[in-house]
Write a structure and sequence with these properties.
7-stranded mixed sheet
């Protein structure tokens, strides 16, 4: 691993970010399951020396509760970052309140050398509760003068782009590209941006490096990273699409 800020893709929307001496994992799905198309690149029990575990929303492949229970022990100093709405579910994982950093839209926390800020995610709807808490979030991480955008699971919604632009230039983004359709919705598989919508967002934000995510985990919810890369190149040339042949390859910012 070279440089002060690096990331590596862990499959689906899983991302590890390292900045100096701080490591965080976002949406890492580490549990074995019969319907997975890929094995966890790092078994949950082998994850150590991580200072923060971030989940964007309470779906298995984003907040992996069985893995969080393990990491609460293997990384005893780690903090857990998640939408505030899901605090009781995290408490049930055996993670004490002193290790929980619940967030809502507009919130900010710090994990070691990394600052994490949040905006709402619409998966497929915003759905705030009566207290104005959102069930799904998008994260913007900042460290060492670099900025990383993790879209979680979301479609585009009115006002989303200006919120992201307000953070300033984004050095790298990971965005879902699996889209949505009636057949999946009828099976309660709620969707995300299409690859075209994701590419347009990246182009409009002038992001130079991007990882297409949420396409390789489940046969019933796929995406097309090559189509994403081709569309982005045709419409917004000059971007670097990190179509990693294998997970775990470090990308330097």
């Amino acid at each position: 691993m070279a440089g002060n800020v690096c990331v590596r893709w862990l499959g689906q929307m899983g991302l590890e970010v390292r900045a100096g001496e701080t490591a965080v994992m976002i949406d890492y799905y580490a549990s074995e399951a019969p319907d997975r198309l890929i094995a966890p690149p790092i078994p949950a029990g082998e994850v150590k020396h991580v200072q923060g575990f971030l989940g964007t929303h309470d779906h298995l492949d984003h907040m992996d509760h069985e893995a969080w229970k393990i990491w609460a022990g293997t990384c005893p100093e780690a903090k857990f970052v998640f939408p505030e709405m899901h605090r009781e579910a995290v408490l049930a994982d055996g993670i004490g309140a002193d290790r929980q950093l619940g967030l809502n839209a507009g919130g900010e926390v710090r994990v070691g050398e990394i600052t994490v800020r949040a905006i709402p995610a619409a998966h497929e709807f915003l759905n705030p509760d009566a207290q104005g808490r959102y069930p799904a979030l998008q994260y913007i991480l900042e460290a060492e003068g670099k900025r990383i955008y993790h879209a979680g699971d979301t479609v585009r919604y009115e006002g989303m782009r200006p919120m992201l632009e307000a953070f300033g230039p984004i050095d790298l983004a990971i965005v879902p590209i699996n889209g949505r359709d009636a057949a999946r919705y009828r099976k309660d598989i709620i969707g995300n941006m299409t690859f075209q919508e994701a590419a347009d967002l990246i182009g409009e934000l002038n992001v130079r490096k991007v990882i297409p995510g949420h396409w390789n985990m489940f046969a019933f919810n796929p995406g097309d990273p090559a189509a994403f890369a081709d569309y982005l190149d045709a419409k917004y040339p000059g971007r670097t699409v990190c179509l990693l042949p294998q997970m775990m390859e470090w990308v330097e910012l």
